[in-house]
Amino acid sequence: MSRHHIAQKWTTHAPKLREKWTALLPRPCLACGQPVTKGDRWHVGHIIAAEDGGKPTMQNTAPVHAHCNLSDGGKRGAARVNAARRAVAARDQAESGRRSWR
After folding, report:
1. Which domains, from first to last, does the chain contain?
2. I need a labelling partner for 48 at 20 to 30 A (CA). Which of 13, 62, 85, 99 fits?
3. Where is the HNH nuclease domain positioned along the sequence (predicted)?
4. What is the pTM for the complete model shown?
C-alpha cells in the first residue's frame, strides 16, 4: 500500500465510500465516462489525488472502472523516476564532459 493511502487512512474510508457509491450506481466512470454499473468491477477513484492533498470524501471521489483505474496507475511515479534518472545522467555528463550511453 502506498504511503499517501496510509497517511490518509484510505483503508478505513474506502469501504464506507464504496458502499455509498454503490447505492448511487449507475454513474459515469471518472476516467472514461462510460457507465459504471453494479455488475462491473470498479474502484473508488480520486478526483484530486491523495498525494496532492485530496481528502477521502464523496465530493472528491467517484466510481471508476477497475481497468481504467489500474491502467492509469504508476504514470506519476514513472514520471518522477524518469526525471530523476535524466537529472543523474545530465550531472554525470557535465562532470565527465562525455555523453553517457545509458
Report:
1. 3-73 (1.10.30.50)
2. 85
3. 19-70
4. 0.64
- Digit-coded pLDDT (tens) for 47-86: 998 778 888 899 999 999 999 888 776 677 778 888 888 8
- Cα–Cα distance for residue pair 87/99, rounded to 1 Å: 13
Task: Pull the grid cell for residue 85.
Answer: 534518472
Find cell 472502472 and name the residue: 65
Q: Which amino acid, one-letter code, is at 97?
A: G
Nearest to 28 by CA among 11, 10, 42, 9: 42
Cell of 4: 499517501
Residues 36-48 have pLDDT tens digits of 999 999 999 989 9
What is the C-alpha separation between 63 and 14, in angstroms, rounded? 11
